[in-house]
Amino acid sequence: MKNYFDFTGKVAVVTGASSGLGADAAKAYAECGASVALLARRKEKLAGVAEEIKALGGKVITVACDVTDEQMVKAAVDEVISSLGRIDILLNNAGVAVAGAVHQLSESDWDKVLDTNLKGMYLMCKHVVPHMMGQNYGKIVNLSSVNAIIGDKVPVLARHSYNASKAGVRGLTLGMAASYGMYGITVNCVGPGLFESEMTENTLFKNEQFMKAYNSGNPMGRPGRRGELNGTILYLSSDASSYVTGQYIVVDGGMSEV
Fold it and tell me: What's the rounded Cα separation, in Å, for the pair 37 and 191?
């Protein structure tokens, strides 16, 4: 029986791989046999994740890359191809969030979020897609958010720049899927709800009012746990999803459906 989740011989690139959902996904790729390139602004922060992957017996490289800087992106992509020979999977995970409604946000805060979450994704794809077109194969998974389709009416939790950037990820995914399917490249996005991570543990998880409201309104009664996003990411990165492209899959315990 064919194992559709065997990534042996495949090379996966993960942005924002130093912690949280990106680090979890990188380790999941390695567990399935992929060689992994870990990208983050500060290369030294990738060392711990790289050691965990090596302990699993996986091949891994770490590359410094600020996804908002096109020259760094190009250099990072070139380094991955030079070191690992190819790129089969791109997980665009790098992202930031800044609290504030539009009347509160500074222009610099708005630009920071849009540059990282949307422009950074465009730049990574700009330099990876030609390589994938040349090999007539590629799996691109873009991390959006459930906040692409729902907002929060609690003023203190408003994150309008984040809403806009993650909705933009959906639009970018649709356009790319339509353009690159003929080259054997699938492009999909995932919309996580609230998950345990370093970023949320120090912000939303410490807001008792928010957590009580979130858990009472979520059909599963809790946020996502570490590792629970990996299955969806691996599916969209694997040959099990060979005829799936342009899709937005929400992983939020049903929160957006009630």
Answer: 23
3-class secondary structure, 93: coil
103: which residues sit within 8 A by CB, 6+ positions away? none
> Which residues does 237 contact at the CB level (< 8 Å), separation at least 6?
7, 12, 29, 89, 91, 139, 141
- Tell me the C-alpha distance between 112 and 98, whole Å: 9
Pairing of strands 11-15, 35-40: parallel
Regarding pTM above 0.85, the answer is: yes
Find the Cα–Cα–Cα–Cα dihedral 104, 108, 111, 116, rounded to 10°: -110
List C-alpha distances in Å: 40 to 65, 126, 246: 5, 18, 26
Residues 79-137 pLDDT 10s: 999 999 999 999 999 999 999 999 999 999 999 999 999 999 999 999 999 999 999 99
Tokens, residue 37: 């390139």
Q: Please list, in sequence order, all residues whose beta carbon lies within 8 angstroms of the beta carbon of residue 167, skipping any fewer than 6 positions away.
A: 144, 148, 149
Give the whole-angstrom CA distance, residue 27 versus residue 101: 35
How far is the C-alpha of 18 from the C-alpha of 4, rounded, in Å? 27
Does an H or E element contain 251, and which?
strand 248-251
Q: Which residues have a catalytic role annotated? A: 162
Could you tell me which residues are beta bridge partners of residue 185? 138
